[in-house]
Amino acid sequence: MPGEEKLSYHEAIERASSSMYRFPVLPVRGIPLTNHIANNWDAIWAFRPDPSDILIATYPKAGTTWTQEIIDLLRHNGDADACKRAPTPARSPFLEIFSPPPIPSGIDLMKDMDPPRIIKTHLPLQLVPPAFWENKCKTIYVARNAKDNMVSYYHFDCMNKTQPEPGPWEGYIPKFMRGELSWGSWYDHVKGYWMEREKRNILYLFYEDMKENPRREVERIMKYLDLSLSDEVISRIVELTSFEIMKENPMANYSCIPELVFDKSISPFMRKGQVGDWRNHFTPEQSKMFDEDYEKKMKDVNMPFRTLI
């Protein structure tokens, strides 16, 4: 609108943060999503990307921000300054996110961006707007082993004051196992993209592989995106996207989000980034119970998950 105040992403969140609260979840086609997403579902489902857009899909806390930074650096030939032009959520919009005004939705942010855009989603495959598949958009999926993923999601739910109340750790485990968290079942999520990866030309990555050999996985992403960068640039990107460097990068560590929304006294957004941290959280009894349930839920697929590297 003429004369309407134009706020930066950071200013919009600052202005809205005082009225933030833990959003309840509502089912969308059987998947629990926060109410702002559920109430705007028609607009999300109708979204039509450009064929050149890149979709990064993950279950929450599975290496999303890491992958966003890798791709942005690949597309800018390893130029760190270019990738500090704005915070991650403004550079790589979150497709389905809708928050209270004046925070822009992911779809609103994309209206002001020229393709190719790097788009983030946590939606399970069956809820991804069909135009992504119709337009044959390149899609990169990152999966993280269930135990570490759950630990990271738990700490995130504790510190993110817009997520449903997580409750105590011992009660969070069965909620995760039953798929009662925002964005639903981890099991269905990772399997859904895995089983469709060849048909839909999805580059399927594992968080543990990225930690074990980041250069190899960065090169896989580069080739999938039909890019060709020098060995020197690849080395720079691997360094710039290390956990230690990203944790100190204000454009990648979500320090742009006010304390009223992300309470960093509870947990930083980028906490440990490790493989195997689950051992510091699960009791032997919890681990045994979880493993038995995991075997039942994952028996129909042969997926190479590792809980240690």
TrEMBL record:
It holds the Pfam family Sulfotransfer_1. The keyword Transferase applies. It comes from the Eukaryota. GO terms for molecular function: sulfotransferase activity. One of its GO terms (cellular component) is cytoplasm. Keywords: Catecholamine metabolism, Cytoplasm, Transferase. Its EC number is 2.8.2.-. Residues 51-301 form the Sulfotransferase domain. One of its GO terms (biological process) is catecholamine metabolic process. It is found in: Cytoplasm. Gene3D superfamilies: P-loop containing nucleotide triphosphate hydrolases (3.40.50.300). InterPro entries: P-loop_NTPase, Sulfotransferase_dom. The keyword RNA-binding does not apply. PANTHER family: SULFOTRANSFERASE SULT. Belongs to the sulfotransferase 1 family. This is Sulfotransferase. It comes from Eleginops maclovinus.
